[in-house]
Amino acid sequence: MRVLLLNPPSEHTVREYTDREVPSDNRALEAEDFGLFPPLGLLYILAALKHKTPEHELFFLDCIAEHVGHRELSLRISEILPDVVGITSFSMAMYDVCLAARTIRTVSPQSHICLGGHHPIAFPFESAELAEFDSIVVGEGEAAFPALIQALSVKADFTAIPGVYTKESIQQHRHSSAVDARFLKYAMAPPAYIDDINLLPPPDRSVIQHLKYRSIVGVSDRLATMISSRGCPHHCTYCDVPFKQYRQRSLVSVTDEIKGCLDMGYDEVHFYDDLFNIHPDRVIGFCDEIKRRGYNFKWDFRGRVNSVTRESLVRAREAGCRMISFGVETGSDEGLRQLKKNTTTGQIRQVFRWCRELGILTIADFMIGLPFEKSTDDVRRNVDFLLELDPDYAQFSILSLFPNTELFEEAVQRGLIPADRWHTFAGAPSPDFFVDHWEEHLSVSELLRLQKESYQRFYLRPRYIWRSVISTCSWYEFTSKLQGALKLLRR
């Protein structure tokens, strides 16, 4: 059989706000301004298919990286004429996902179309009802999708495969109250799940070697993304990461994958784990293995300040760690407590000081429009804390209220947002949908003004500009910084 794995076009993603509230020419930085990253989930599925079902002909298409829009997708499908298509998804891009599926159905009506990714985990029943898809995978697809391919190849029933559902087979779970603590959302159809992620073959990057992925804060266009773990055991009130049980890969497995990336010509690795530094000893062990093998490359990760020690930072710097992204989020201990961050402003200050002393670049991820910010002065005071930290980069996001999170449920209970908007959208994705924000005290327009003001306060400081210029170490880094600055100035 001919099997296509598809990362669909991204032309109609869910909007942060309506055009009436904020005209399109008056917006802050968009998601694409921050970089372009490989669809790791699909690359894991591809590797699993090659390992378990080598007899099938496999195709891979990343429409975003290859600049393939919906019109050109039709031509690509006509060339491949796949028997099965696996489409990855995020809820924010579901209208594009459905458009892609309709294109496939028109050009290749015999194709079996399977929906995977984040969206079926968050909305399994609505996903199964969508007419564009013949099946869905709820959960992790490395075992489920190859099993589906094998069943389809011999025309066997596939509804007994864990995590694989059709519109009909999922109905028996619709009113289940089963609790699965491995996931953020407890009441759901039983998911596909990989207990031991060490058993998975590494992502197959052979199909993306010709593509240039990048990060706006990176130093190279030969960027590889990687995960050393899955899941995050923390319960921040705004976060919708679906996997809550933390599973680690062995350090040997991770460093073997790094060796493969270096052999392919990659010279920068971005760890995409939901939580890379679960414990300082794990970071130290990883760094020791990197040094033992003598690998020389730049790498960065996303982490939490309450899992950092100075010793772990020293080892990381010695092993080539260039940068760490920390979720700072807000600027007061009470605010951090309400967000259930399990961190303090004192810890944050200490870790950022250590990183500056050791020469590790820092990114501070920050939010505005939080429930406890009741005025523009409240927002500015919290941003003052970030300016005091003086990280190397800062990202200012307006709080988005996503379903299956504590803040979303609180907003519903207080009558700030309707309870069923996302479920309605999940059952009939539309280009007119937009994200909810906490507008009890400040409107979206006011928050957008504060967001742009915050970016300008941070990045247009003379001291910051000078430090950024003298620390630039590659042409790629220089052009990335220049493009970002020009966008800020235009906004």
Describe the structure.
The protein has 491 residues and is of the alpha/beta class. The chain folds into two domains: 2-193, Glycerate kinase, domain 1 (Rossmann fold, 3-Layer(aba) Sandwich), CATH 3.40.50.10350; 212-400 and 437-490, pyruvate-formate lyase- activating enzyme (Alpha-Beta Horseshoe), CATH 3.80.30. 38% of the residues lie in helices and 14% in strands. It contains 17 helices and 16 strands. The strands form four sheets. Strands 3-1-4-5-6-7 form a six-stranded mixed β-sheet, sandwiched between helices. Strands 9-12-13-14-15-16 form a six-stranded parallel β-sheet. The chain has a two-stranded antiparallel ribbon with strand order 2-8. Strand 4, helix 3 and strand 5 (112-115) form a beta-alpha-beta unit. Helix 9 packs parallel to helix 11 and helix 12 (376-389) packs parallel to helix 15 (444-459). The N and C termini lie far apart (50 Å). The model has no long low-confidence stretch (mean pLDDT 91).
CATH fold name of the largest domain, please? pyruvate-formate lyase- activating enzyme
Uncertain runs: none
CATH superfamily of the largest domain: tm_1862 like domain
Main sheet, how many strands, which sense, barrel? 6 strands, mixed
Oligomer: single chain
* CATH architecture verdict of the largest domain: Alpha-Beta Horseshoe
Tally of structural domains: 2
